[in-house]
User: Fold this.
Amino acid sequence: MAGNANSDDEFHDAIGEEITEKEATSTRQSEKDVDEIVEKQNQLALDDEAEQGAAGGDSIATPTTVDSELTIEELREREKDLSPEQLTANKEKADKLKVEGNELFKNDDAEGAAKTYTEALDICPSASSKERAVLYGNRAAAKIKLEANKAAIDDCTKAIELWPEYVRVLLRRAKLYEQEDKPDEALEDYKKVTEIDPGQQEAREAQIRLPPIINERNEKLKNEMMSSLKDLGNMILKPFGLSTQNFQMQQDPNTGSYSINFK
Assistant:
């Protein structure tokens, strides 16, 4: 299973992706034809939206911000009127935009890269799950550089929903969860990584490192809760000349529940 997760050379994301001269040449050769097809299709879509607006209908605005891509429902609605050839052209255009985004990312233009990935998501066919997953994973990497961790987690989640065995993005989200002080969620992602690829050393080490951190946090929270309960109890018992010192709390080792006895 691990081999399948890591052998999809077709689906590289922005981190560490290399573009060969052959790929670059192929892209340049097909670029003109693809652009013409997509431009024609996009112009028809814009004309249709203008007519809808004139008739009082709702039109779909073209996203201009980093992460305002079309919803999957909006994308599927647009695709209803597209031919197989147009869908293929859109996929090729999205692939080209991904390469452009990767170059921007490598050149430290994280914002430009994120916007380019968003453009690609708006035309990448809804049926191309892995390609869309990579675009979301790439945009998450760009958002990390922009210090937008919560938005990056959202993109990682979208990518994983499309491609549950996307190890690189599972690791990326796990690290983000740790940074956001969510060790429980991080541990779950590391466990999933190990299930998919038992050879991932980083995930195995995290499963040793995180449980003590989680237990320490839980113990601290429990002590804080008990302290708050004691303060509340003392406030209630004070009019009766009592305090929580008059009660003894014992934990059942079998069930973990507590019993309170008066002393």
